[in-house]
Amino acid sequence: MSDTIAAIATGASVSAIGIVRLSGENAIAAAERLFTPLSGEKLSLREDRKLIYGRLTGRKGKLLDLCLCTISHAPASYTGEDTAELQCHGSPTLLRAVLEELFALGVRQARPGEFTKRAFLNGRLELTAAEAVADLIDAETVEAAGNAAGQLSGAISRKTDAIYSSLVDICSHYHAVLDYPDEDIEPFLLENYKDILKNAEAALSALQKTYERGKLMNSGIPTAIIGRPNAGKSSLLNALLGYDRAIVTAIPGTTRDTIEEKIRIGQNILRLIDTAGIRETADEAEKLGVERSYAAISEASLVIAVVDGSVAFTEEDSAILRFAENAPKAIVAVSKQDLPGFSSAPIKTALPVVEISAETGEGIDALEAAIQEIFPLPSVPAGEILTNARQAEAVSMALEYIKAALCALEMGETPDIVLTEAEGAMQAIGELSGRTVREDVTERIFARFCVGK
Fold first, then answer.
1. Distance between CA 442 and CA 438 in Å, rounded?
2. Which has the closest alpha carbon to 268: 326, 329, 198, 320?
C-alpha cells in the first residue's frame, strides 16, 4: 500500500464545496506541490487537522483555485497513512483538473472504498465499523443513520470483544495448566467456566435476533399490496406515494406487472410492491402478472390486503385474506370508504383492519400508524443491531460453537473437546470483527463502497 491514491470525495454535481482526498506515502508531498499556504509556510510543516487557506496551482503555475487544505501525518489519520484534503469550490470541472494534476505527479485514482479499506488494513477501523461507513452513507432514515454511527463508534465490537476475551481466558488457563504442570497454577476445572459460556450464549443469541430488524431497517420492508382486480391497490400505492405512479382505471386487470417504489413511513422504509389483481384469467399477459404477484407475496415481510368495501365480499376476497394471514406480517385495508355503497361490516380475520379512501386520503394516517405499530424499533441501543448477512452469519456460527461447547461440557466430555468448540467460536467472532477475515471477503465488502470513501 505504499502507492498514493486520490479521489473526489464529494458528489459529481455542482456544489458549494468539493473535496479531493489523498492518502499514501506521498500524499502530503503531492498536495504541497500544488497548494501554497498564503502565510508562506510549508504545508508539510503545518499542524495536523487544521484548515489552511492558500493558492491551488497547476504544475505550470496556473492558478486553479483559492481554497483550504488540511493534512494528517501517519498513523494518526483516518487511513493510518499520510493524508491530505483539498477543499475547493465545488465545480466538477475544477475537481477533475485537480485530479489530473495529481495523476501527473504519480498519484493514482483510488478504487471504490479504498480509503476505508486502508483504514481497516492499517488497524484504524474494525470490519463492522468499516461496514458502518457504507451504511451511514446509504442511510435513508435517522434510525438507520444512528445505528450505523453506533457501529462506527464500536458498539458491536465492544460486545463481541468481551465475549472473545472471556473465551481467551478459558483457553489460556487450560493451556497454561497443560504446558506448565509443575507451576503453581490454579487447577483447570471446566465447571468453573460454565457461567461464562452461558453468558456468551445469551449475548450472542440476543445479537443474532437483531438481524431481521436490522436488515429491514437498512434495505426497507418488502411490502406487497395484494387484492382482487379493481380493489383499489394501485390507488392505495398512489395515495401512499403522494403522486400518480400506477395507472388507475375502472377496468379490472389494468395492472399487468408488479410496480415497486420506496416510501418512508415513520421510522421505516417500505419497498411498496403494487401487484396484479389475483384472479383466474385466460389472458396470457394478466396471467403472468398474477404469477408475479404470488412471487411478490412469498418474498414480502408485510402484506397489505386490499378489500373493496363498496361491493359485496367475495370468495376471491377470502382467498386474498388467507394469503395475508400466512404472511409474516399483514394488514387489511378496506378501500373506497368515500363511495356511497361502502359497508363497515366486520371482516372475519385476526389481522388489523383499517378503512381507507385513497381518493380523499381518509384512513391513510391510520394505516401508516398500524404499520409503525407492527414494525417498532428494537429496544436495544443504537449500533447494536446487525445489518448485513455477513455479520449475522458470523454471529450465528459463533453461537453454534458456544452451544456445542456447553453441550460437550454437560455430557462430561474432556476439556480439549469443549475448548475446541470455544476456539471455533473465537474464530467466528474474529470473522465478525475482521481479526481473521479472508481476503476475498474483504474485497467483496469494500466493493459496495463509492469512490472517495
1. 6
2. 329
**In the chain, which segments carry CATH 3.30.1360.120?**
5-110
Instruction: Say if CB 103 and CB 443 are below 8 A apart.
Output: no
With a pLDDT cut of 70, the percent of the chain lying above it is 87
Please give the CATH topology (third level) of the domain spanning 5-110.
Gyrase A; domain 2 (3.30.1360)
Name the CATH superfamily, with its identifier, for domain 216-374.
P-loop containing nucleotide triphosphate hydrolases (3.40.50.300)
> What pLDDT, in 10s, does the model give residues 338-394?
888 788 778 888 899 999 888 888 988 998 899 989 988 777 787 889 988 999 999
**Which residues in the chain are classed under CATH 3.40.50.300?**
216-374
DSSP state of 225: E
- Convert 57-109 into a string of H (helix), E (strand) and C (coil): ECCCCCEEEEEEEEEECCCCCCCCCCEEEEEEEECHHHHHHHHHHHHHCCCEE
